[in-house]
Write a structure and sequence with these properties.
The complex is a heterodimer of chains A (503) and B (138). Helices cover 77% and strands 2% of the residues of chain A. Chain A is mostly helical. Chain A has one domain. Chain A has a two-stranded antiparallel sheet with strand order 1-2. Chain B is an all-alpha fold and 138 residues long. Chain B has one domain. In chain B, 72% of the residues lie in helices and 0% in strands. Classes of the chains: A mainly alpha (503), B mainly alpha (138). Chains A and B meet through helix 1 of A and helix 4 of B.
Chain lengths: 503, 138
């Protein structure tokens, strides 16, 4: 049982070490990297399998009992997040065979991918706030290098903004953790949750909650702290951007959900409306930003921001249905968004550019690519029967049930604008004839390129379709996960054992 | 700029620094020290060689490429955590053997972990220093 919790951390670390040792042979590195990603995926499936019946898996690292040691905890939500992260890593590694240049591969691209994944899965599985900070840093160290690897001018400009803003966020997080430790004397999430019940709901706990909100808000790219994201995500190679787009902001969202459903649960009169306002503004500014862009990568980057708003909306509403919507949304979104970035890379290869002005007639050139774009794009906009429709449907229904018409109206309007953005890419890149002054069309994709670039895209597309068609299954899972999130006592009991208060 | 004084001093100091780094590594178990500072001190020794005789001469003395040191170090740290798992205890549980060795004391998983840190730090620092200096020499 405790092996299941540790393996998702050990496999990426071992793979990172192995790919460093094998660095002299690119073929061996790729093989080891893919084998590691596959093993990670298998470990994640096993972990999810063990949590499906509602068990909350706990292990105390180093056999130091909670709250003194570091607890690793997996409930349904955490296990599902690890699984999607593993799926995405496998897709990205496969895509990288043709999607990343040899110079970057020589410079340690593969070890960094796995270090990043280790940080992400650690952040999902930890039950300790300071340990969460450490995993954030592991993840960020990997991402700092990945975002600047290659050293192109635009890349370094983007990387600078990315690094500085994330360091600010880490500092705020650390300050929050320090204040919390000063007031309750523990950073174990379950223990802190119990200890905070004895303090007044307002006052210091709300201040600390705001600090966490701010820190995780920056990581999640919520309004008004999102500007680092569109400034940096379009600069690294597309597989890196896909991994970032799929995972990094969602780790911020995950941390927000975890902290606000477990630790800071009592002052919802303060956090709820605040989150809803942030959610609405995030959705609107993100989608408006996307409309003004003419570069596929920038359009997609702004849409990440706008989509984060939907996830925060569910958290802000805070009902069981709304949280189920957030869980559903996060899981669906990771697959779809990363997929779109991978498609963008393939569009660049097939059409020679990321710019909508210079792209054209991709539909005639590669119908398969067009289909590969259409699935995640339509799902992102939220048209039935794909996964995005159900995610939005759950959130809209939760909004209506909670009697909050404003946020529902915003969500629906933003959804319409998202559709507009996606049709813009479709019309410009796939539909219209290639512009006259454009460079000669690049050579058609070779079979190897098809397998490496389009294979992962089609697999992720198939997952999107499967979520859409089998929405009932995922809904029941999300609902069960939300029920678990709404009952922090389950989590506390699992971590601290069957005692009521503090010992 | 070649300095005779630095080159001569390095020849004397180099083995002492390496010895001191190993001392720090083992001392770290109960007192200030440990794999991190140990690795830094060892890296200083090789950095001095690189400064006085060039990166190539330092690489000749280094038993393995810095990348290999990093990989091996990570695996050693990982293995120290696995020992606990293999014994049926939680990951990273500290376990010690029964024999007591001179200087080292009771060998256990913490010292293996620290040795991993030592190698990783040594590898990372040297990788950075060598890369920068080689760019300079070229």
């Amino acid at each position: 049982m405790n092996l299941l919790l540790v393996v998702p951390l050990l496999v990426p670390l071992a793979t990172a070490a192995a790919t460093i040792l094998l660095a002299r042979s690119p073929r061996a590195v790729r093989a080891a990297s893919f084998a590691g990603a596959a093993a990670f995926l298998a470990a994640a499936v096993a972990l999810l399998g063990a949590t499906l019946d509602g068990t909350i898996l706990v292990t105390q690292a180093g056999a130091w009992a909670a709250p003194f040691g570091i607890s690793l905890v997996a409930d349904r939500f955490a296990a599902a997040m690890v699984l999607v992260a593993a799926l995405l890593l496998a897709a990205v590694v496969a895509y990288s065979v043709r999607g990343v240049d040899a110079a970057r591969e020589r410079a340690g691209y593969h070890p960094l991918l796995h270090v990043l994944s280790m940080g992400v899965s650690g952040a999902f599985l930890t039950g300790d706030l300071f340990n969460l900070y450490v995993w954030f840093e592991v993840m960020l160290m990997g991402s700092f290098v990945l975002v600047s690897l290659g050293g192109e001018r635009a890349q370094l400009q983007g990387a600078l903004k990315y690094v500085v803003l994330n360091l600010v966020s880490s500092a705020l997080f650390l300050a929050g953790a320090g204040l919390l430790y000063g007031s309750v004397g523990t950073l174990n999430m379950a223990d802190a949750a119990v200890a905070l019940r004895e303090l007044p709901a307002q006052g210091l706990p709300s201040v600390v909650a705001s600090l966490f909100l701010l820190a995780f808000g920056i990581k999640a790219a919520a309004f008004p702290l999102f500007f680092w994201l569109p400034a940096s995500y379009h600069t690294p190679p597309m597989p890196v951007a896909a991994l970032f787009a799929g995972l990094l902001t969602k780790v911020g969202v995950y941390a927000l959900v975890r902290v606000l459903t477990l630790v800071f649960v009592r002052d919802t009169a303060f956090t709820g409306p605040l989150l809803l306002a942030v959610a609405a503004l995030t959705m609107v500014t993100g989608v408006l930003g996307a409309m003004a862009q003419g570069d596929v990568r920038k359009i997609l980057s702004f849409h990440i921001v706008s989509q984060i708003g939907y996830m925060l909306m569910g958290l802000g509403l805070g009902t069981r249905l709304a949280l189920a919507g957030t869980v559903f949304y996060v899981l669906h979104h990771i697959v779809v968004k990363a997929n779109l970035f991978l498609v963008a890379g393939a569009m660049r290869r097939a059409g020679g550019s990321f710019s909508l002005d210079r792209l054209g007639s991709l539909l005639a050139r590669s119908p398969l690519l067009a289909a590969a774009f259409l699935v995640p794009a339509v799902s992102l906009a939220g048209l039935p029967p794909l996964s995005g429709f159900w995610a939005k449907y759950l959130l809209v229904r939760a909004g209506l049930e909670a009697g909050n018409g404003t946020i529902v109206a915003v969500a629906l309007a933003v959804s319409l604008l998202t559709l507009f953005s996606m049709t813009k890419i479709w019309n410009e890149a796939f539909w219209k004839p290639a512009p006259a002054g454009a460079d000669a069309a690049p050579a058609p994709l070779t079979t190897a390129e098809r397998a490496s670039l389009l294979g992962p895209v089609l697999v992720l597309g198939a997952v999107t379709v499967a979520i859409g068609l089998g929405a009932g299954v995922l809904y029941r899972f999300a609902d069960a996960a939300a029920a678990q999130l709404l009952d922090p006592d389950l989590y506390v009991r699992a971590v601290l054992g069957a005692r009521d208060g503090r010992m | 700029m070649r300095s005779v004084i630095l080159a001569t001093a390095t020849r004397v100091v180099f083995p002492l620094l390496l010895l001191f780094s190993v001392f720090l590594l083992f001392r770290g178990h109960n007192e200030p020290g440990g794999g991190f500072v140990g690795g830094l001190v060892a890296a200083t020794a090789y950095a001095l060689l690189a400064l006085t005789g060039g990166v190539a001469s330092a690489r000749r003395v280094l038993p393995a490429r810095p990348e290999v040191l990093i990989g091996t170090g990570l695996l050693a740290a990982l293995a120290s955590g696995l020992v606990g798992l293999a014994a049926g205890r939680p990951f990273m549980t500290g376990l010690w053997g029964d024999v007591s060795l001179p200087v080292v004391g009771k060998p256990g998983t913490p010292v293996l972990f620290d040795a991993g840190v030592y190698l990783t730090v040594l590898g990372v620092v040297l990788l950075i220093l060598f890369t920068l200096q080689e760019e300079d020499e070229a």
